[in-house]
Every structure is written in structure tokens, then in C-alpha cells.
Amino acid sequence: MPLFFDLLGVFFFAVSGSLLAARRGFDIVGSFLLAGMTGFGGGIVRDLILGVVPTAFVNPFYFIPPAIATLLVYFVAPGVQRLVRPLLIFDAAGLALFCTSGTIKALEAGMNPFSATLLGVTSAVGGGLIRDVIANKTPSIFDPHDIYAVPAMMGSGLIAMLWMLGIRGWTWELGVTAV
Amino acid sequence: MPLFFDLLGVFFFAVSGSLLAARRGFDIVGSFLLAGMTGFGGGIVRDLILGVVPTAFVNPFYFIPPAIATLLVYFVAPGVQRLVRPLLIFDAAGLALFCTSGTIKALEAGMNPFSATLLGVTSAVGGGLIRDVIANKTPSIFDPHDIYAVPAMMGSGLIAMLWMLGIRGWTWELGVTAV
Amino acid sequence: MPLFFDLLGVFFFAVSGSLLAARRGFDIVGSFLLAGMTGFGGGIVRDLILGVVPTAFVNPFYFIPPAIATLLVYFVAPGVQRLVRPLLIFDAAGLALFCTSGTIKALEAGMNPFSATLLGVTSAVGGGLIRDVIANKTPSIFDPHDIYAVPAMMGSGLIAMLWMLGIRGWTWELGVTAV
Lengths: 179, 179, 179
Fold this sequence. Notes:
homotrimer
């Protein structure tokens, strides 16, 4: 189950990477590279800090989401390219999923709730940050018009608090619906 | 003691991050994020290379310096925002502290003095680099008008040399005053 | 032998870093810093993911390639600075070497061929990406006019396939000549 959510988060970020690649006029190879970096970036940082081999380098299935995202954006949705909105939506969806999955993975590894929240936010923010920095764009988390980073962080903190109180089951939905 | 110096270094870098965030017009959340990334960045890279869990993810106290820095810059010093000088001063102070603490931490972990110097410089340069790259600014270490990177590097090398000669006590001051 | 190829790859990337530093008007310290980051960047990311201490922080010899590259570009070839071509050539040469050495190192560490290919590409792309992001340039791997990333990736995949088939000797040349 966590694997499915993780792959879904990778997919959302990968789509946001491909959309930005399309706006920047990158070709399909560049689009796939940016999709992969955006999708894998946050998880790699998270796993390195936890001291485990990054999941993207263990499980070949992780290739599938960026591949689908690239093809989808490249062939199916060329008209969507110039719109800002879908990029933000996929970014926010990936952010919410990574916040919760990152926080839970850190808690399971025995981190204290405070640090786990920080790692959840780091892994969630990481992918989008790498995408925007590479494509020479002011990172969307710094956009003062959108406060979508705040609910994600609050969701991350909420999960850590529930964990402390002993509620460790399907709190996923809670975090996701917080956004 | 090393913890205090490390936290002080984080604080200096966090202030420089908040100052740049203010200049870029980021809101308080963005300011806190950039302060945290600048303050934690170098130490995270250092600890990952040393193969230990980054201190910022172990000790919740590390949250305090970026929080203070953000509030300080946001509420107390709005007039300071447009000045270039304070950013450079806090950057240089953080650089000097991280150079010495990074070199010493690497030496204590059993690295050879040459590599320890490199890691000290890497950890010192890392935070500011992350800050400038994220905020779309040519990194200040590449500014030909300021050679503040050089004394920091020399301080780092000096500490490694003193270590080799058996002088391992309070050489902190030496490195710091070198700048 | 692998050490020699690794150092050669570091040298190629370091030259590309120094060339870009020259074009940006950085001084010799900045040139050395960018040469080092470009040369070491990909290998550090590769080794962190593999869970070993980055070679650049173990073996002091790794300092030599960036130092030679910086001096070479700074003193010998000032007229070459404005040309785009040499930067691309050194970038492609470093890319090819890192793709093969990264893939082989990952295979030797017991990674599956698919993940090993991904890590080879990551380590090859890493250094140039860090260089371009720091110097505020759209990363050359995203340049639609040059498809030099594709042969490097194919070389990386080829090496992984040959490894699976039991051919593990001097397949270096194959990968390199692929470009």
C-alpha cells in the first residue's frame, strides 16, 4: 500500500516536471529527465537522510510513473502546456502525498515526531524545488499567491501527532484531504 | 560546545537566507523555508558524506535558529532588507563557523586532513550555494569583488594542519578570527 | 584502472566547469570551486546512493584533476573562453566516462541492471547539472539541439546488458566509443 501511494506521488510530481519541460520547450528526452528528477528527487533526499538505499534505485517499477507522465504530457495534452493551473495542481497533489508518506516512513524508522515532520516536509518540497531550480524558475513554494505548502506541512505535523497518540492506521486519507 | 557553535553557524546562515527571501519578496513561510534550507543545507551534505544521520534531523533544537532568524528579519529589521552588506556579513560568519566545525567533525570521524579540509569547505559553501541557487542569484562565493571564501578555506586547512601536529583543543577561535 | 578512468572523467567535467566559470567572469578561486563541484558532483551523488563514502573524500588524488583543469583554462587557453564547442565536448566526454564507470560501480555493488543503468545516468548527468544550475544556465542536457545525452544513456544500458550476459571485462571502450 505505501508503495502504491509513493508511486502515485512520484507520478504527480513527474507530470508537473513534464509540464514545465513542455513550457520550456525541452524535447521528449529532456521531458523524461525532468519528470524523473522531479518524481525521484524528494524520495532520494528522504532515503539518503534515513540512511537507506533510495527506493527508486531498488525497485525498477519506479520507472513507470515518469515514463507514463512524459508520454501523457507529450502526446496527449499539448494544448495544456501553456496553462499554469495543472502544474500547480499536480505539484500540490504530489506534495501532500510525499508529506504524509515521508513523515510515516521517518516515524517507522524510529525518528522523533519533530524530526519526522521536518523530513516529511523536506521530501515533499525536494522534488518540486529540484524541478524549478533546474528549469530556472522561482520555486513555486515561494510563490506568495499560493499557500499550498502550509496545509501540506500541517498535514505532516498532524500525522506525527496522531502517531504519538498511538493512532497509526489509515491516517493517510486525513493528510491527503487536508489539502 | 560544538553544538553551540553549530547552532550559531546555522543561525548566521538562516539570517542570510531570510534576508535574501525578504529581498525577493517571499512571504514569512517562504522566508522560514529558505532560512532552514540555508542553515541546514551545508550540515546535511556534510553528515551524509560522513555517513551519519544529519544533526538537523536528530536534534529538534535545530529548529530554533531558523525560527528566530525568520522572525528577526521579518518583524524587527524591515528597513535592512534592501542592503547587501548584512547578507554578506552573516554569510561570511556562517562560512567561517561551518568551515571549522565541518573540518573538525570530519577529522574526528577519522578522515585524512586533506579530505577533512575539503569537507569543511563543502559544508561551509553548501548552505549559501543552496540559498543563492534557489533564489536565482549568482552564488556569492563566485563574486569576484569579495574574496571572503579564501580566508575561510585557509582557516579550514590551518585547523587540519594543527590537528596533524597534535593541537586539538580550542582552535576554534583561530579559524573564526582568520576571517 | 577504474581509478584512472574516474579521474579522467573528473578532469573532463572539471574543464567544462572552468570553461563556464571563465565565460561567467569568475576569478580563479571561483573557477576552481566550479571545476571541483562539476567534477565531484556526479560521483558524490553516486556514492551517497550506493551508501559508500564518496571517493573524492577518501583519495586526495581527486584534487589534482580540478587543479590542472583550472590552471589550464585560466592560463593556457584564455582565447578559448568564448567558444561554446569545447565546453560541450568536455561535457560529453565526462558524461560518457561517468555513465560507464557509474553503471559498473553500481553493478559491482550488487544493484540490479535496471537500477544500475539509472545510477550510471544519474552520476553522469549530476556534475553537469550542478555546474549549469550554479552558473544560472539552462542545463545542456536539456538543449534540444544536442542529443549527446542519448548515446551516453544507451552506452550505460548496453554495459548493464553485457554484464547480465556475463561479459564483464574491458567493456569500457564500448561505452566510450558509443559517443
